[in-house]
Amino acid sequence: MDNAQVGISIGLAVKGLSKISELKKGFDGLKGKIAEAKKAIISLDNTRLSNLSSQIRESQKALLGELTTNFSNLTNSVAIGVPIKLAIDDEAAFANVKKYVDDSDENLVKLKNEMRGLSSQLGESFSNIADIAAGGGKINLA
Prior knowledge:
- This protein is an all-alpha fold.
- It has one domain.
- It is 91% helix and 0% strand.
- It contains three helices and no strands.
- The termini are far apart.
């Protein structure tokens, strides 16, 4: 080989080395950008998770509030409804007694009060006491 060719080869090699050096710097810069992007993604994920957690907490509070309100409404309904149902059942049971016991309204009121007293004393329901009284009325005992 002659000197010119060797010189050209060395020149190309040096030029190639400088390009490799530039390429390495570019990759190093890219590596830094990738690290920054990774940090940004992690930060975004943390923000999303934080927002999601707060939304879940708010939903839990709203749901708990709704359940509490519904339970309170149910409790109020039961508190009002049970005594009304018992009163209706008592009146229906005593209507059966009235059907078989032929007496004045005043005496029927006394009988009803006595039956309530017996119900409390014996620990038996008013309906059961009324059934017994109606049975007595059927055979003319009352």
